[in-house]
Design a protein that fits this description.
117 residues; Nuclear Transport Factor 2, Chain: A; 42% strand; alpha+beta; 2 helices; globular; five-stranded antiparallel sheet
């Protein structure tokens, strides 16, 4: 009987295979690069962030594209996005935006928006 219990416990405690060299290790709650910033959802998040900023700041930025970003899965998803936008007389600039999103409740919050260095 003891051998059967020990074998069952050993089976439950097996270690998952290590990530291959080409995969980024997954850290629970950690930030990871967004692999495809051209994904329509990511681009729409960037467009939304610019629109929210424009409304709050009474500004007139025009969204161009998300050029890079990171995501963190929590109770929802945090995004750090680097966004290209046009200001005023066609001057291109880069901005950093932090967005929190809960897809299942369809809620978003713009946490920060500022010129990128």
């Amino acid at each position: 009987m003891l051998i059967v219990v020990a074998a069952a416990v050993a089976g439950l405690c097996s270690v998952a295979p290590a990530a291959s060299a080409s995969e980024e290790p997954q850290i629970v709650g950690g930030w990871k690069s967004i692999k495809n910033v051209n994904d329509p959802h990511i681009q729409e998040l960037g467009r939304w962030a610019v629109s929210e900023y424009d409304t709050a700041a009474s500004d007139s930025l025009v969204f161009s594209k998300v050029v890079s970003g990171e995501e963190q899965v929590v109770a929802g998803t945090n995004y750090k996005l680097i966004i290209e936008a046009t200001k005023g007389a066609g001057k291109n600039a880069t901005y950093g935006a932090a967005v929190y999103e809960k897809e299942w409740t369809k809620t978003r919050q713009l946490l920060s928006f500022a010129p990128a260095n």
